[in-house]
Amino acid sequence: MAKYVYLIRHGIALDRALSEQDETRPLTNKGRKKTKQVAKTIKEKGIYFDQVLTSPLLRAKETAEILKDKGLTENLENFSPLAPNGDIQDWLNSWDKSSAETLALVGHQPDLGNWAELLISGKIEEKLVLKKAGIIGLNCPENQSPFGKSQLFLLTSPKWLIKSE
């Protein structure tokens, strides 16, 4: 059996130059709108997250809240290792304890791209770039370390998920 892990980058946030603290930069109106559209498309595809873990930074928490508000999960938790420069090992330490079969991790680039590379190939090459509100989907083996053993099934920017209206 496998676990499905979705790595989701936060939506478009207020420019760093306009905010005193990186931790409190919110999503912009455009970022909220795009993220809501992405969440709507994910729901239409029949995806539901047993659990969503989010970076404690405001823009990631707002992104995760949009996922919850759109009915993609009922279980949302702050998870400090998803903050910038977090350690994937902290997540993996809880890997076997989690009963979630479909998990979303909401965080930041380059960390999410690097984590995906580590899970797929066992090494970080900094080649995967995840756009804001983009998604990486991985099929990770259960009951063993997923490093170098996970399979990529989705890598998409938000423009491929947003329907033109």
TrEMBL record:
SMART domains: PGAM. GO terms for cellular component: cytoplasm. SUPFAM superfamilies: Phosphoglycerate mutase-like. GO terms for molecular function: protein histidine phosphatase activity. Substrate binds at R59. Pfam families: His_Phos_1. It comes from the Bacteria. InterPro entries: His_Pase_superF_clade-1, His_PPase_superfam, SixA. This is Phosphohistidine phosphatase SixA.
